[in-house]
Structure to design on (359 residues):
């Protein structure tokens, strides 16, 4: 019995030891597994954080690489360039990446845009659509920058309405662009297409010279040339505001004069630079409209028109910066009116949606 008891006691002790050892091993294994899992997760998080930081740095680096060394911007003498003068001044003072070209006529800019020699340009509204077609969709409209600024001015006092233009000769520049199509549309809509003679000049300055040289003559001039004419000759008066003549036709669109276009490749390669330009341009337009005296000095500084002329003209220049969906609605409506009148005026076909930069 004692031997059996002793053997039993030994066996029981051995079994307890085995049980304890198994429990202890399981606990250690679980703890080890938990520690290993925690370490793995920590390592994974650290790795993920490192990859995220690296990715962010690479993205930031890529963004920096995507900034152009120079951005070539072109505009026409007149309201489109006047609205840009604060940006031009900022570029000069802050060493911004812009290079500006101010041209006297639209036909100077067309080949530069078509050949990709400028990145951003301010052009007549319909010319943007023509260039879109001509370049096979390689440009986009960024913004409407000038509403109607065209006026029929008389060196006399015989024209009180569109009907009074019958038998008159109108001097005008802008053939093949917004001035021609807007004027022709208004004349035709009033049934005078066979009763008015339009003599086309290469520049607005020539129209002004003809107006001042011939009494009872009529010239279609944009601001600020209207102000220039009146400062040179008090007998020059605004006979018809083409904005009013356009609105009298009860159309679903407004009369537009100018837009800002961008090379599509530039906008795609440098989206941040494109947005920054648009923001800076909008700020420049706001400054010009709200600080007329200072803006006029800048307009004179950059030889767009004399400061004294700009001071009187700016309030009537309808300088704006309308972008996004509102720009698309305004511009497409205006182009549709021109297309319905003469498809060639917008390049033969209405631009597709990708013409309108609404990002």
């Amino acid at each position: 019995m004692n031997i059996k008891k002793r053997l039993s006691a030994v066996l029981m002790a051995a079994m307890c030891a085995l049980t304890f050892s198994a429990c202890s091993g399981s606990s250690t294994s679980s703890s080890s597994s938990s520690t290993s899992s925690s370490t793995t997760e920590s390592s994974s998080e650290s790795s993920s954080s490192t990859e995220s930081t690296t990715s962010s740095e690479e993205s930031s680096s890529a963004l920096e690489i995507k900034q152009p060394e120079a951005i070539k911007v072109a505009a026409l003498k007149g309201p489109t360039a006047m609205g840009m003068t604060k940006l031009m001044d900022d570029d000069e003072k802050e060493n911004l990446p812009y290079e500006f070209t101010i041209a006297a006529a639209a036909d100077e800019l067309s080949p530069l845009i078509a050949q990709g020699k400028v990145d951003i340009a301010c052009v007549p509204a319909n010319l943007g659509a023509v260039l879109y077609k001509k370049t096979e969709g390689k440009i986009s409209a960024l913004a409407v920058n000038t509403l109607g600024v065209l006026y029929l001015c008389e060196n006399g006092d015989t024209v009180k309405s569109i009907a009074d233009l019958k038998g008159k000769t109108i001097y005008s520049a802008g053939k093949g662009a917004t001035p021609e199509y807007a004027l022709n549309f208004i004349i035709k809509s009033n049934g005078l297409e066979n009763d008015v003679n339009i003599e086309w000049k290469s520049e607005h300055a020539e129209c002004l010279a003809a107006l001042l040289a011939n009494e009872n003559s009529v010239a279609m001039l944009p601001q600020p040339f209207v102000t220039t004419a009146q400062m040179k000759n008090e007998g020059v008066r605004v006979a018809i505001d083409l904005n009013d003549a356009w609105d009298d036709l009860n159309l679903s669109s407004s009369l537009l004069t100018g837009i800002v276009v961008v090379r599509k490749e530039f906008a795609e390669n440098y989206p941040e630079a494109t947005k920054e330009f648009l923001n800076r341009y909008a700020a420049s337009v706001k400054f010009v409209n709200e600080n007329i005296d200072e803006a006029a000095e800048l307009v004179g500084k950059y030889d767009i028109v004399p400061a004294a002329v700009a001071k009187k003209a700016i309030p009537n220049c309808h300088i704006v910066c309308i972008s996004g969906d509102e720009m698309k609605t305004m511009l497409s409506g205006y182009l549709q009116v021109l297309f319905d009148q003469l498809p060639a005026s917008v390049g033969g076909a209405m631009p597709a949606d990708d013409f309108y930069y609404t990002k």
Q: What stands out?
A: Residues 4 and 10 are 10 Å apart (CA to CA). The longest strand covers residues 139-147.
